[in-house]
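Lab channel / #folding
Pinned by the channel admin:
"Please post every new chain as: sequence first, then the structure tokens as a reply. Keep commentary short and put observations after the output so the thread stays searchable."

First post following the new format, from NK:
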Amino acid sequence: MLSLLYQEGPSTEGIFRRSGSAKTCKELKEKLDLGAEVDLACESIFVMASLFKDFLRNIPGSILSSQLCDKWVSVMDQGNNEEKIKSIQRLIEQLPRANVVLLRYIFGVLHGIEMRSEENQMNAFNLAICIAPSLLWPPVSSTPDIESEFTKKISSLVQFLIENCCRIFGEEITSLFGEI
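Reply from TO:
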């Protein structure tokens, strides 16, 4: 799925912004959950993007770990970019290995899409608005005002992660998918 998003996402206007067919997403998710053979290449890229965001939202405690929520939210309040990057790297070190591997691939995809933002209209800000709520959420529910403020902070963090992913995850993030 990530490989398809990496291949087609950069040339797809509004990737992650436009939703795939709800019916198709539901049917495909059911097939995947049952372990059925599915040819993802035959599906709409918008269905893939919707399914992927759904997958991320269903990771228990979120991929960035709701237990570290306060620390993630406070990263953007730190000093200069170098300090923010160091703080992010320290937080990433606290995540389970599987989460870190998946994050590297996610940001490899997002970086590839962002590099062609003139074509797809999805710069780091737009991508962050669309994907941030799927990457981290507070451990407890709160008022709509607090949730709105939280979403803004996490979107800002994700935008920073996209814009600085090569410095955070290493330059090899640009070649994780090889020559597709």
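NK: DSSP finds ten helices and no strands in the chain.
TO: also worth noting, The domain at 1-174 is CATH 1.10.555.10 (Phosphatidylinositol 3-kinase; Chain A).
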